[in-house]
Amino acid sequence: MTGLLPQMNWRPTVAMIPFPGLTMLDLIGPYETLRQHTDVHLLGSTTEEFRSDSGAPFRATEMLSDAADYYDVVFVPGGSGTADAMRDPHIIDFLASRGPRARYVTSVCTGSLVLGAAGLLDGYRATTHWSMLDALNFFGAIPSSERVVIDRNRITGGGVTAGIDFGLLLLAELFDEDTARYAQLLLEYDPAPPFDGGSPRTATQEAIHHIKEYVAELMASCQSLVAQRDGLKGGV
Fold first, then answer.
1. Among 49, 55, 79, 83, which residue's beta carbon has the most beta carbons within 10 A?
2. CATH number of the structural domain 13-189+199-234
3. Active-site choice (74, 109, 155, 174)
4. Is 222 a catalytic residue?
5. Which residues form the DJ-1/PfpI domain (predicted)?
6. pLDDT, position 26
């Protein structure tokens, strides 16, 4: 469904950075929320097809090496490929150079850890998937369990489905609340989950333990990355 929302004279540029092992909904939720009012660029280390963490094929349409000097919004999704994205020099170099210039620096889910690895969250309140909140400390961020955190020009969303909330709040920041409300209605976004247990506040301890075991490798990767970085600093 296109062309149904009021059109704006200004179309902000949004740089979204997909990577192998991303969680599709982390990117698609914000994309669907923003696309009618922004010019979205899918920038990657490669434009060859890769697999998301669910096995679905995906690809960037532009190379990070060919990126413009400025984007109004820089956005990073999360996923099981986050650890590799944190070590991808193309992604980190892009974020480190474009992030400080951008109007908004943003993420959903574990994408905030990639922002942290690029040095963009030091001293900022931020969120991520609930199971990885403690990892934000490694990057000098101040963890918050809010679904979406806005701290100055840093906007970070929680896990996966928070991407739609994130996108709507970003739309309100870029334009106004009415624009965001139109988008919310078009998406028919009025969540009423069929089951309890979608957050650690309502989930069983068994389920929480299972998820934390699942993400343990990513937590270890964050620790390793920071230790390596600090070791390099100590050797200078």
1. 79
2. 3.40.50.880
3. 109
4. no
5. 14-172
6. 98
